Amino acid sequence: MTFLVFLMLKSTGKAMRLLRLLVMRLLSTLSVLLYFVKGCYRYPKEKHHPCEDLRCGPGEDCVVTQSFQNKDVLSAQCICPKLCPNYGDSVDSSPVCSSDGVDYHSLCHMKQHACETKTNITVKYFGKCDPCAQMKCGSSTQCKLSEQRRPLCRCSQQCSLHHDPVCADDGNTYSNECVMHVAACKDDLQLSVFKKGKCEGHHNNPCSNINCSWGSSCHISKNGTAECRCNKKCELILKPVCGTNGITYDNECELRRLSCEEKSRIEVHHEGTCGPLNVLLVLNYIINYFFKKFRDYIYRQLLGLQFLRCLSLIVIPLCRPGVGGLKCDHCLPGFWGIHLIANGAMSCQRNLKENYLDTCGCSAFGSTRADCEQSTGRCECLRGAVGDKCDKCHDDMVMTAGGCVIKEEYKTPRYGRS
Question: Quick one: DSSP state of residue 360?
């Protein structure tokens, strides 16, 4: 320090300003170090540590102080961090992702917030919750995380236009192996070549004869048999979502993956954590879960019985809600979406309009069919007919038993003798 003062006295101009800046930074660093070092104390092994008797709350630090009257008497107390110094590139000054999905400037800032709000928050990841959030990649690339959670622009492999088709183990044909790897990269899939050349036709393709549910996808094993697999890979990002079962998941991918593995229908109720235990949400999930188990049990018991057709006419509901037919192969009037059941839907759908259930009620004159169109749940209108129910015509037309007709061409029917 004496040497620095001597240089300050001898230097002038620009050199003087640089020395002053150097001394100011040195003094500020020393003051921060002295603030934290003054409370340090090395305990002998045979001496009792006062912090062992304390149980600090979320984010609090145990600080030991000496008594003014007797320096041998030590006391401890839990306090919130007051100052969060910046150590540059040190790990202690690096951003952290908390268990509630919030980014903090450092571990100290997270503990400070946890202490002030009395919330039990822990470190989920060192670094940002979603490192790809602010990463900008080219149009032909996508941001993906490495195993160390570093954001990288990937999936940019330049594939040749050479047509050398391969059949992947997902049952799909790709123009060449490079294109297959790029598709796997973009969709976070693990694909490998099942065989060279195109996949077999619809009848010989193992994946065409299997119907995967619960979000699983078809994969062809080495012996040529098809099986449904759940996605095993989700990126290490934290975008909490609350499931319909009242449980918070790290991200939507994790929710879908666990829903598939547990073979349980779980949807995203809302983004963010579930917060306090939602009793109604959990109760609704439990009721639906055991109802499904009971329904599947009844189906198994009744399977193969000769009087199955008779039972479908009495109390026991063999078909799912909104489903009809002796084989439960179509939706009842006012319902739609029989094809959605194969994708995990619990029943045929019914339109909700202004907080009440709305039957199709398609116009017998203005629509092509009396029931809903099964893929959309809407009425299919004839030419010139408009409206949700196909019960109206354009201004220059009039509704008749044969549909909408131009007013000038419409002839009023006559009844009785001519």
Answer: -
Please compute, for residue 338, the number of CA atoms within 13 A of its CA located in the half-sphere on the CB side.
15
CA 327 to each of CA 6, 78, 210, 320, 323: distance values in angstroms, whole numbers, following the listed order: 99, 69, 20, 11, 10
Q: Which residues pair with 75 in a beta bridge?
A: 65
* Residues facing 132 on adjacent strands: none
CA distance 371 to 330: 12
Q: Which residues contact 157 (CB under 8 A, 6 or more apart)?
A: 178, 181, 182, 185
What are the tokens at 68?
């003014």
Of residues 374, 411, 407, 369, the one with CA closest to residue 390:
369
pLDDT tens, N- to C-terminus, the chain (418 residues): 555 555 555 555 556 667 667 766 676 666 655 555 544 556 666 677 788 888 898 989 888 887 766 666 778 889 998 888 887 667 778 899 998 889 999 999 999 999 999 988 999 999 999 999 888 888 778 899 988 899 999 887 788 888 999 999 888 899 999 999 998 888 888 888 998 998 877 667 888 878 888 888 888 888 888 889 898 888 899 999 988 888 899 999 999 999 999 888 888 888 888 866 565 666 666 676 676 666 666 655 555 454 444 444 444 446 777 787 767 777 877 777 877 877 777 778 776 554 444 556 788 788 887 677 777 777 888 888 888 888 888 888 888 877 888 877 776 555 444 3
Cα separation, 234 vs 256, whole angstroms: 10
Helix axes 2-10, 13-37, angle to 10 degrees: 160
Nearest alpha-carbon partner for 79 in 126, 112, 104: 112
Q: Name the DSSP class of 339.
A: G
Domains and CATH numbers, the chain: 61-126 (3.30.60.30), 130-219 (3.30.60.30), 230-296 (3.30.60.30), 323-409 (2.10.25.10)
Residue 229: burial class (beta carbons within 10 Å; 0-12, 13-18, 19+):
middle
Taking the C-alpha atoms of residue 236 and residue 145, their distance in angstroms, rounded to an integer, is 8
Count other C-beta atoms under 10 Å from residue 311's C-beta: 14
25 burial type by CB count under 10 A (0-12 exposed, 13-18 middle, 19+ buried): exposed
